[in-house]
């Protein structure tokens, strides 16, 4: 069997949620099925670390697909033409878009419909593109994969013409590098990044949907109520509309206790996660929420939002608050700080919750989907 894969977001040092999802599942698929060929279609020079096995044929199809017109041109013309002569049996589309022109059966992976719920957090051109084409993508795709039952139900509700039988939920999981640390290693991380203090942690792109403004308000309330020397570490790239946040930080009362670390290598992120007092992840909307599971697997308690897929991901083993209510977020931070039994229980049960998600099982589920569509395997 010959399997084409859209690999345009497999970019060195730029992976985030959907990039990690694609990397973890695809790396397992190609290694577990060496008898099959995989065509990885990039739109720019690629890093060798993404050529996971010798059965991958990498090709570069220009131009780079990074704006609306380029998306249509790349998916419907350039990439489709490039694959025509290679005759793949199926084409995996991990990023929410697919080709409307190709005759190749496609698996469309959709992480969320955030553009419908929070359109103000998306550039106008992208919002227009999503609204115009998502229904057509869902109709065109032979199979649709979501990362949570929440997103599956959301698609069925928002696009009722979509056949529920062709939607499969295949969740993400925590990467293996996220593991608990011993107290000596935790102390070293705190010395290196937090002046030796305990810290709350946020990880994710600096973007309005991630709700950093309300997190800062909640941290202010926590500091006011508790008079603690705790710090707040923020890990993630400056993604979109971050200027207002950075400007407000200049006059933020507790700015000396907020550490902006930017995008970090995976090993550093794993260590900083495992040494955290707690992850605070108050995002407005998520299709899954990988940082939740990564913190839990690291033995770190989690405070997150009571919206979208986050309660599904965290289960009964996280603390929840409305992302619109800084007081509620701060109250959960206080609850965790004042109740060591609660914190210890969340650390123990969180590891069990993380164990419910597994990349290998997810890769197997995607392979069954491929085989069902192609009739091969």
CATH H level, superfamily name of the largest domain:
Glycogen Phosphorylase B
Shape: globular
* Ends apart, CA distance between termini: 7 Å
How do the strands of the widest beta sheet line up side by side?
A: 3-2-1-4-5-6-7
Q: Main β-sheet, in a few words?
A: 7 strands, parallel
Q: Beta fraction of the residues?
A: 15-25%
Indicate how many domains the architecture comprises.
Answer: 2
Helix tally?
14
Unreliable parts: none
**Helix fraction bin:** 40-55%
Mean pLDDT over the full residue set = 93
Structural class: alpha/beta
Proper CATH architecture of the largest domain:
3-Layer(aba) Sandwich
What fold name stands as the CATH topology of the largest domain?
Rossmann fold
Series of H and E elements: EHEEHEEHHEHEHEHEHEHEHEHEHHH
Written description of the protein model:
- By secondary structure, the chain is α/β, with parallel strands linked by helices.
- It has two domains: 2-173 and 358-374, Glycogen Phosphorylase B (Rossmann fold, 3-Layer(aba) Sandwich); 183-355, Glycogen Phosphorylase B (Rossmann fold).
- Helices cover 44% and strands 15% of the residues.
- The chain has 14 helices and 13 strands.
- The chain has helices at residues 17-32, 68-84, 114-117, 124-140, 149-158, 183-193, 212-226, 243-250, 266-274, 290-297, 310-314, 326-338, 340-355, 359-374; strands at residues 2-6, 37-42, 56-60, 90-93, 106-110, 143-146, 167-169, 199-203, 231-235, 258-262, 278-281, 302-305, 319-321.
- The strands form two sheets. Strands 3-2-1-4-5-6-7 form a seven-stranded parallel sheet, with helices on both faces.
- α10 (290-297) links the parallel β11 (278-281) and β12.
- The mean pLDDT is 93.
